[in-house]
Every structure is written in structure tokens, then in C-alpha cells.
Amino acid sequence: MNSRKIALSIIGGLLIIGSFFGAKYIINSKTTPKPRPEKVVKTVVVEKVKNGNIPIIVPANGNLVAKRRVELFSEVQGVFKAGNKLFKPGQEYRAGEILIRIDAAEYYANVQSSKSNLYNLITSIMPDLRLDYPEVFNKWQTFLANFDINKSIPPLPEMSSDKEKYFISGRGILTSYYTIKNLEQRLAKYTIAAPFNGVLTEALVTEGTLVRSGQKLGEFINTNDFELEVAISKTYSDLLNVGEVVELKSIDRNKTYQGRVTRINGRVDLASQTITAFIEVKDPDLREGMYLEAHLKAKEEPNAIEINRSLLLETEQIFVVRDSVLDLIPVKPVYFSDNSVVLKDVPDGITILSKPVMGAYAGMLVKVFNDQGTNTKE
């Protein structure tokens, strides 16, 4: 009986040991297949190259300045008199309207007195002219008849002989006449009229102010024509032409204006090595001092294409697609702008990327996006 229990115990132990090694063998012999990564093929947007003439656009910016402006200065002294319109910034005036009127009552009386003296002087020589120079009497009589002390004195009669000239000059008539003409010229400076239609942008005096000679009174501009002064690199000094049409954009880019190059400075700025170009622009919405951005067409680059700057690698290469595989070709960049680059030496008909691809490399398998139509890069 004991021997039977011992035999059963030995058999049980052998079964347990056999089961252990059998399980271990099964575990070791079991192989789990490694998962194969799926090959991801990126979809790319492409375009076919067609070389052509690419305009080189030079960006520039500046502030608008009125093309016609007048700084108002006084050449005489007196009290500023009130006019029909207030002398205030923003006030509009028509051409010929009085901007400034300075009290000239005292000076006007002096002019009138001088005119009266000249009239009396000519009147006093009339009897002598009748007797000694009867042939010139009538024209001097006509001069007196047309003499109006409240108006500008008429031109003196033309003197036909030396005798007449000596006689008239000897009586002091010529000196008196030109003295009055000088006084009349100065009297006119007590009134300043608007030289053109425009707006007063600066007013430094008010009614009742004592104005002194040489004092600045204000500033008057024409609001129809403006100029934009821009600095351009000297590289394009021989490419810009007067009369070129220029696109101008406001700083917020909400509106576009059309301008025209009217003048180009012939001197290069020593400090910045730039030249100054002046662009004329007209629009009722424009105001002096507005900041505008100009795009000047400097020249056209033949047999070239324009692409986004992000597509050009630092090695001056771009990606092309050949049989659904990316490849690199060398190119020659000729002009860079903020967002694009103009390239040469790109073969016609070749397919290039039109949008950058993350992680792109030569030999990369790609899929061309089919819903592109027939776009070409020119």
C-alpha cells in the first residue's frame, strides 16, 4: 500500500515537471509577427512651368504731400482784419477769395496823397506843353482824363522825342510816377488772396492780431493733387521711367489708388544710396499726411517664373515631381520680394510644387492632387 502511494506520488511529480517544461516550450516556440508600418504617400499640389516675362515690382512707401502748397507770410505790418470767412484750419477757399486782409488805412491815405501830387504836377505842365510841345499835348490831356485817383494809375504816355522826355523828367514826373507804382505794389501786399482752390491747413493768427513783417500766418494747400515721395534703391535708377503707372495701397489695404511717376531725382542720397521718385495721385478720399505703400514696376525679367519664397531651398534648388517621385533641380533666383522670388533656368513644361510639403526630400513618393485644372506657373 505504501509502495503504491509512493509510485503515484512519483508519477504525479513527473507529470507536473513535464507540464512545466511543455508549457515553457510552447511559450518559447510561439512567435508574434511584427506589424508592418503602412507607407504614407503625401498628396502634393503641383503646377506646370511656363516661362514668360515677369514684372519686377519694387515696393516703397511714404506720406502724401500736397503738390501745390503755399506758406503764407506777411510782408507788411498791421492789424489782421476780419474777413468773410474765418481764418481757421479746414476752411475752404476758392481761387481769388481773400485769405488775409491787414488794415492798410494809413498806408492807403499815403498812396492817395502821392497820386494827388502826381496829378497836380502833370496839370501844372499842361500850359507849357500847349505852347512849346503842341504835338504831344493831346496824349497828356488824355492821360489826365483817364486818371482816377481811386484806381491804379494808368501807364504814362509813350514819349516820342528826347525833348519831350527831358522836359517830363526834368519836372520830376517820372520819379513821382514810379514812386507811386512802388507804393501801389506794397499796398497790394496788405491783402492776400487764394492762388487756387484749396483748404487752409494751418492758421497762426486770428482776427485782431498785430501782424509783423516777415511773420508766418499759415499754410494753404490744394486738395486735388498729391505727391508721394519714395526712396528707391539705386539699382533701379536706370529702370524707372517718368510716366510709369504705379499702384498705391493705403496702410490698412482697404483701398487701392492709381498714381503716376512724375519726377525722379537725378542725385543718389549719399547716406542711404537711394534715389527719390515722386508719384502723383488724385482722389477725393486722399488727405495730406496719409501713409501709402507703392508698387513700382521697375522692369520685366524675360524667360522667368515667379514662385512663393517658401518653395526655394537655401541651396537654390526647388522640388519637381517626376513619375510621382520628388526630385531637386538647381535654379537661378534673380529677384526677391517679401513673399515671392523670381527664378530663371527652370525648364518649360516641368512639374513643380506650388505649395510646400513638410518633410519633403528627393526620392519621396508623392501623389499628385488631381482636382487642379490646368494651372501653369508663369
Automatic annotation (TrEMBL):
Q: Which InterPro entries match?
A: MdtA-like_BSH
Q: Which GO terms describe its molecular function?
A: efflux transmembrane transporter activity
Residue ranges occupied by any Multidrug resistance protein MdtA-like barrel-sandwich hybrid domain in the UniProt entry: 69-217
**Domain of life here?**
Bacteria
Recorded hits in Pfam families, A to Z, give: BSH_RND
For this record, the Gene Ontology CC terms, alphabetical, are: efflux pump complex
Q: What is this protein called?
A: Multidrug efflux pump subunit AcrA (Membrane-fusion protein)
From which organism does this entry originate?
Arenibacter troitsensis
